[in-house]
Amino acid sequence: MEKSVKELEENWRKDPKNWKLGGLFYCNKEDKRLLVDKPNPNYGTTLNFAHRKSYIFMLMIFLFFGFIIFMVTKKQ
Question: What's the predicted TM-score (pTM) here?
C-alpha cells in the first residue's frame, strides 16, 4: 500500500497538468501535501497552491518580511 501512495504522488508531481505557468506553480486538489518537489527535484520544493495552508504560509512570509522592512526603515 505504501509503495502505491509513493507512486501516485510521484505521478502527480510529474504530470504537466498539475503545473501552471510553465511549471512555476503546482496546483493539485487531490494532493494533500503542502510542499512538493519540483519537476526536477534538484531544484528544491514548492508549495501546492491548491492546498489552503499554502496561502496562509505565503501571507505569514510577506507579513514577516514586511515587518522587518518596517522596523529597519522606521525613523528613530
Answer: 0.76
